[in-house]
């Protein structure tokens, strides 16, 4: 065990250091806004392709507009949060990283499940998703609690 003492407190893991969670809630909200701006911008070229496909198929292709944003968002999450950095572009800009409590790395499928639970939680329990962070340990959201993850600062 690689334990160290910090301000009279024994720290056994980087995830036990309370400084890793300072300002995480605000940074997560800002990272979310940045990420969804990026997803919106990435959706534009695909929206043009769906427009052209709809013209070619006499309007049938326009049904793909309903799937456009979720597919782009999930692909974005797969390749960013599911990468070795374990952070989306917005999270990197805010110095955040998603960690699993069991120590295993976050892969693409796990990242997508994390995002889908986030979206489902917001649809069903909108105010509770952020309110839970006020009372949970390590400022974890509902989907973090369900999946055994935590978001930590990388600059601490």
From TrEMBL:
GO annotations of cellular component type: plasma membrane
Keywords attached to this entry: Cell membrane, Membrane, Transmembrane, Transmembrane helix
Compartments, as annotated in UniProt: Cell membrane
Domain of life of the native organism: Bacteria
Membrane topology annotation: Multi-pass membrane protein
Residues spanning the membrane: 29-55, 62-81, 109-135
InterPro entries: Pra-immunoreactive, RDD
RDD domain ranges (all copies): 26-147
Protein name per UniProt: Membrane protein
Lineage: Bacteria, Pseudomonadati, Pseudomonadota, Alphaproteobacteria, Hyphomicrobiales
């Amino acid at each position: 065990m690689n334990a160290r003492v910090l301000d009279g407190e024994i720290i056994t893991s980087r995830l036990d250091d309370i400084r890793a969670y300072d300002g995480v809630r605000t940074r997560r909200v800002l990272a979310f806004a940045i990420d969804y701006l990026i997803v919106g911008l990435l959706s534009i070229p695909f929206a043009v392709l769906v427009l052209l496909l709809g013209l070619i198929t006499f309007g049938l292709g326009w049904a793909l507009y309903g799937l456009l944003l979720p597919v782009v968002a999930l692909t974005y999450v797969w390749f960013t949060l599911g990468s070795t950095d374990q952070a989306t572009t917005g999270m990197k800009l805010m110095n955040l990283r998603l960690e699993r409590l069991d120590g295993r790395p976050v892969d693409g499928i796990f990242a997508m499940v994390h995002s889908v639970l986030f979206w489902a939680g917001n649809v069903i329990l909108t105010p509770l998703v952020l309110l839970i962070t006020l009372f949970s340990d390590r400022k974890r959201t509902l989907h973090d609690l369900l999946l055994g993850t935590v978001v930590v600062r990388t600059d601490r």
